Amino acid sequence: MIPLNSPKIDSLRIRIPIADVLINGEHQEFLRTITTVNNDGEILSEHTRTTYFNADEIISASYSVRSHFGGDDFVYIGFSSKLLKQSYFQGIRKENIDLCLDFINSEGLLTVTKDKLLEAECVDVDFCIDYFIDNEEGTVQDVVRVCNDLTRPLKQINAIPFTRGDNTGIQWGHRDKVGKSYKKKQFLKYYAKAIELNYKSFEFKNKYLKDALNETIIDINGNILSKGNKFFDEKKLMRVETTIKNKAHFNSYGYNVSTLKQLLNLDLNIDFLQIFSRPMLHYMTGYREVIHKMEMTLSQKFKYEYCREVALKNNTSIENAVPVIALNFQRGITPAVKRARRDLKNSLYDIINMAQVGKKTHKHNSDFWNKFIEEIQAKNLIP
Questions:
Q1: Is residue 64 a contact partner of residue 50, using CB atoms and an 8 Å limit?
Q2: Where are the domains of the chain?
Q3: Residue 168, Cα to own-chain centre: how many angstroms?
Q4: In which band, very low, low, confident or very high, does the pLDDT at 314 lie, cut at 50, 70 and 90?
Q5: Euclidean distance between the first and the last CA atom of the chain, given in angstroms as a whole number
Q6: Residue 44's CB: how many other CB atoms inside 10 A?
Q7: What share of the chain is helix, strand, coil (3-state, %, to 5)?
Q8: Fewest CB within 10 angstroms: 34, 251, 317, 360, which?
């Protein structure tokens, strides 16, 4: 069964004080000190392995020990919904967290109680939603093209579309480079989930999901969508992922989440979709907005042409011409001058965005394309 159109927890890391877990001192690798000696018996080096991931197994959690300011040691455990095996597509929930706990304890590195697991601080939480493209001709690749076309042409927005043998998709930002810029750099990714499982996670899919993919598929309201694996389609099953880094990031959405227990008690309802819509609105221009602004004013056309001329003169892109124009427009370091330059840059970027996105998105004019756009708008895949 693949629940569609509803958010779920895909993966996360938790941080537990090392005093709250029982470390297995007999484990052959984790927290073992490796000593190198020469032929005379002299110690050349000593190294304690503080990280572990069992790459030889189809499924494994990741483990690391870190010392923090003040001398306290913490164990970090990273795990995903793959620990749920056949229930992978259900996502991590309070109803199945015991499966994750049992798996972690079964790996033999440490033992942790359920109470301590639930009290652990959670970071780097990946949420996801699975969608099926209903339009007969539409595909995940079509969604990627539209999203790439709608991406705002700003220097600080980094869209990375990819089409390769083992996956098709697009991402904005990087999971490990967000820092405190939650509103401007939140990681967002769209990709073909069936392709990813068939190529990157084939062993996992073959061992644990074959039977599950033949079950009845329902939506968020419990309505039967299909019997069998019709929706496990490389061209049409798409996953959207985004990462919430920590408590402060959750707070920026109005959620008080610090511990795993608080995370599992979240109501992943329609209001929770804001964690996907905010980065989407930041990275992409709305299709409706483009339609409304197809005709630029005479002043806007003049400014756009001027940006093109400056770009040609400086042998650069039209986006990179904007800071040059703003700097020459008004020099100085006073707050008023800085605001004026910033406002000018923003207005020029808006005009460039209006012209370029309009050309891209309105090159299609067919019933199929209009219905396809309506569908992905209704699914909140584009603004």
A1: yes
A2: 8-287, 295-361
A3: 15
A4: confident
A5: 29
A6: 8
A7: 40, 25, 35
A8: 34
Burial-class residue 12 by CB neighbours within 10 Å (0-12, 13-18, 19+). buried
DSSP code of 166? Answer: T
Sheet with strand 188-192: strands edge to edge: 51-53, 62-67, 73-80, 8-17, 121-132, 237-244, 188-192, 167-172, 159-164
Residues ≥6 apart with Cβ < 8 Å to 135: 368, 371, 372, 375
pTM above the 0.85 mark?
A: no
pLDDT of 359 above 70: no
Two tokens, residue 223? 């309505």
What the block records as the tokens of 49 is 């392995």
> Cβ distance 6 to 93 under 8 Å?
no
Query: Rounded CA gap, 81 and 90, in Å?
Result: 8
Max Cα separation, the chain?
85
Residue 186 CA to residue 244 CA, distance in Å, equals 8
